Amino acid sequence: MIPVECGSQECFVEVNATCCCNRQLFLCHQKTMKKEALERQKEKLLKEAKEQQLLQMNKGVNVPIIWVLGGPGCGKGTQCAKIVEKYNFTHLSSGDLLRAEVASGSEKGKELAAIMKEGKLVSNEAVLLLLECAIKKAAASSKGFLIDGYPREKDQGAAFEKQISPADLILFFDCADQTLVDRILARAAASKEVRADDNEETLKTRIATFRSNTNDILAQYTEKTAVINAERAVDEIFADVVSAIDGVLAKK
Fold first, then answer.
1. pLDDT tens string 112-148
2. How far apart are CA 14 and CA 6, in angstroms?
3. How do 90-93 and 145-148 pair as beta strands?
4. Given the DSSP bridges, would you call strands 225-229 and 169-174 parallel, antiparallel or unpaired?
5. DSSP H helical segments within 61-119, as ranges?
6. Contact 108, 101 (CB under 8 A)
7. What is the pTM of this model?
8. Exposure on the CB side of residue 156, measured as CA atoms within 13 A
9. Are 175 and 230 in contact (CB under 8 A)?
10. Where are the beta strands (DSSP E) in the chain?
């Protein structure tokens, strides 16, 4: 009981009711806090389980993962086709995966389509999820993975290796900036479709951005990178590609 100055029964009942109400609120608050703590613990356990699952998956993947980088017009598309033909690797392009998801008409595809329609960039998390799903789907039968045009920034490389698997090799097809510009302009001139960004000024800006981002990526993986001179004949370039890939396969 709580003593009151007047000592009346009415005051006692009022104070007692207030006490009960406060106790109920306290108990409700404690219950809510306990529930939130349990939810946080559940989320933590689910996250740890997923990380462990990914770790086990990565340990079981005994095929090379190769990042293929190069500026627009460097010829990496041609080289990827030759790699697939010789080694039967799985060729995954982040751009192709995005377009395929949109074309599928799935709920995720509709979300991605809306983002791209607004001119916004698709989040790295969404791109990584598409790559992860594609790798998991092909993991049992694939002899290797070519990840084409990814990562585009240094943070993306770290995210890929943490979420999916470390890269075994980076093939960087290197060309002088002017060579890239000349090749793209020649390709545009021969094409029926005219892209608004296929002009020399815009191309130089695109190439400068690519060069800056790629230099940051390569600086992180100097021991894994094979820099390929891509200003030569296709077969000469491919000979260096084969040498780099065979070196990785010998270690697997």
1. 888 877 767 788 899 999 999 999 999 889 999 999 9
2. 12
3. parallel
4. parallel
5. 76-87, 94-104, 107-117
6. yes
7. 0.70
8. 22
9. yes
10. 65-70, 90-93, 145-148, 169-174, 225-229
